[in-house]
Amino acid sequence: MTMATFQSMGTTLIISEDRITLEHNRKIGNLRKTIEIAFTELEKIEERKPTLFSGYVYFRRNHDPSIDDKEAMIHEQAMIIRSKKKYKEYEKVSELIKQRIVENAQQTGTPDDRIDSLVKQLTSNPHESLRYEAHQGHLIISAHTVSIHHKTLHRGGNGQREFSISSINSIHLSKSGLKAGRIRFFTESTNSREKYKAYLASENELLITGIDDYHRMYEAKLLIERLRVYHADKHDPSVIPLTPRSTADELREFKALLDEGIITEEEFEQKKAQLLR
């Protein structure tokens, strides 16, 4: 059921009971023309009033980064507002959206509450598992294991790989841009040199091609990390909590990949710019 609509600069904002929809008629590169964001995903609205330059409204999902003025002009989760008069029209529907965000948070809790609930769901039933879809395949997560299921055979010649949560040393997640993003798993069985080469090992990763893939895999990453903490708190000696890597650590790893010829100079510079943003 549609509660309200608002149009500005080739974009129509539709507010329903459980979500907002952005329908873009303007050209925004290769991005999708219709975007749906459920209120369970919507963290906040970042607003820039128009002055001498156009303003914008950016609907930020949970765990999304903030964006600058230039990014807002082409972002699929944003709409452009050129005049102060049009912005005043937007403010009327803005209050409705913000009210729905508050009401949803009161009903469903925070994203951390959701992860805690999923951990409880998995650990209370050894036969329970959760499925997270991505472009290349899907993940199956249980209380103690993660399995990667590929839609096509990877270089290892097998469409499925499973490993224990306790064996995972780190998880790397990247958004898609000019190239597909990825969720990659590094386990304790790989030494430092093998770890760099494993970065391109398709059997340890799934491709991410859109923002929906990214958000599903982000939740999967949080869930796996929280499961490790859960087992560590239960005094499981095989589980060592994941140690967050600093930007410097990640840059060193990518520099090593460059030095060994595994990635190109262009790929290294792109990743460097992303990490230092």
UniProtKB/TrEMBL annotation:
InterPro entries: SHOCT (IPR018649). Pfam families: SHOCT. Residues 249-276 form the SHOCT domain. This is SHOCT domain-containing protein. It comes from Shouchella miscanthi.
